[in-house]
């Protein structure tokens, strides 16, 4: 384990973790604290605006972007985001959205430069692959699209999982193929979304793993919703949930439901 | 183009077509793994893709210049160039050329732009016989079908489908359709007759080379060569963007084209045609070469935010890797160009309103951008198209988004809405799950349970745990807070 650098970061917890997976937020804090990182949680954070942006609602996305920039710019501490989608939004899309805004354009660029997706922060910034976690059982990793292709999150979650004592990692066939969530796509084109989900769940079931690890809670909700309907024992959890686990010989944690 | 039936209907039918699903699984997985293998063995692959992109970007930034050079060089070698602003003009030119040269029968190489122009139909109406010589296109033709993929027209068919078709339309015997080799041999015999008797050969163009006035054709079957050297007239049909400055540039493009399309280093035949027959004594080559440059909306696209779509070299890799295409196939798009490229190109060339559904049919996963040999950022353009057509969004979505935005810019209201919404969801839930979401959200619960949110949000828990502690001032090491703390903000509840 790395020796404690006295670092301080802001947590942009994301609207979905805040509402649907608060324990994952707690897990992120726990892992970072264990590594000697202090956490600020800006109380006024809401939503990064990605659903609006992807849906073509550019003005709405800009409003939410400006708000988020304001909230995260009170402190100049780096921002950690436990989501590849929201991370990609803040790191790449804010500057595009606000390129014609003389006030917020530069602020967006400044924020982007100090914002990190959670697994990238641990591995690339802190240089840590072993966070002192231990758990039990077979896990498989699904690579969420925005983190993977938007931010280049590829090896980092796998390295971190490899550092978890007691866990058996199994490769997921077609692990880089989209699960079919796609935000509003999941309700606007539900049949196609569900067909993509079915394919993903068949691949998951073929591994025999009980726990699927992801870096985005949005994809987790979509996949867990499908697993629930299939009455499957398998559950999708966020990487932080696994990394926070220190139960000696304990099971990998299940999501809240 | 069957635009009367909606995209949603066609996608629905495709998803329930077991035969199609089987065919798509086979074809796309094969092409995806072939591409992956080819690039894994290509040490400079990424650098060459970057170079290929730069060539396309540069060419399109000076398109007029390169089209002029190309035209000069074709004409210097005795060829003719016709610039068609519209598809109709292109069709007219070819029709009147055929009439004036007493053309009766035509052989055709694969050309997606000829599909765009619906050229075959126009020529057949004039009494010409046209035979498609690309095997996949030939199957399409005799089956009265449409291609479902830019490079491999019949991915939606299995060999059993083709066997049945050959028996029905060609009177083939069981032996003649016993396997793919037999069917290919049968088609070859039929097509040989067509080649030998044709007055005109119409081909597409993979790349036109400005420096030499050459037309490059890439085929795996050799039909490109025969189509363009046996008949006395060769018509080469191309979109104005299918041009590269020099032969060296062509070399770069060829390194990525076949690898991206089929995983081959090069297609079996790469033909470089420069002008018609040089002298009457030459044993092969057409007497006349006519290159038809087709605009048909492309020049308009050049100036705008979709300009990058013109970099496309028609390799089809984006279709193969697209998880949506893998589920619904090409016909569901209902347009000449389907898949990720088609979802941008079609609205770009023809306008967004009649094709507003296509850019929605994507989870924005980015696999297309990752596979594209010239790194076209298709997801960016899909969002741009969605933004252009946002007023066409359903009313519930527009209203919902307004409300959501209002709340998201007012933290206290957002928290309250979260508590209220959460309570409503928990009220509807059983065992922590909701099995039926109302109204337009019911698409989710058709196949997925929806989780009931826990009573306390993360931020609520955090506030409760950290209320009353001294606040950090955001200046790093000087903080007086304990291990964790809140950033101060007036109005935080």
Short account of what is shown:
The complex is a heterodimer of chains A (257) and B (493). With 257 residues, chain A is an alpha/beta fold. Helix content of chain A is 49%, strand content 14%.
Description:
- The complex is a heterodimer of chains A (257) and B (493).
- By secondary structure, chain A is an alpha/beta fold.
- Chain A folds into 2 domains: 7-124, Rossmann fold, CATH 3.40.50; 129-243, Rossmann fold (3-Layer(aba) Sandwich), CATH 3.40.50.
- Helix content of chain A is 49%, strand content 14%.
- Chain A contains 13 helices and 8 strands.
- Chain A has a 4-stranded parallel β-sheet with strand order 2-1-3-4. In chain A, strands 6-5-7-8 form a 4-stranded parallel β-sheet, sandwiched between helices.
- The longest helix of chain A is centred in the last third of the chain and has 18 residues, at 190-207.
- Among the domains of chain B are: 42-296, NagB/RpiA/CoA transferase-like (Rossmann fold), CATH 3.40.50.10420; 400-473, no CATH class.
- Chain B is elongated and about 95 Å long.
- Chain B is an alpha/beta fold.
- Chains A and B meet through helix 1, helix 2, strand 2, helix 3 and helix 4 of A and helix 1, helix 15, helix 17, helix 18 and helix 19 of B.
Which keywords apply here?
heterodimer; A: 257 residues; alpha/beta; Rossmann fold; 2 domains; 4-stranded parallel beta sheet; 13 helices; 49% helix; globular; B: 493 residues; 6-stranded parallel beta sheet; 4-stranded mixed beta sheet; 22 helices; 48% helix; 11% strand; disordered C terminus
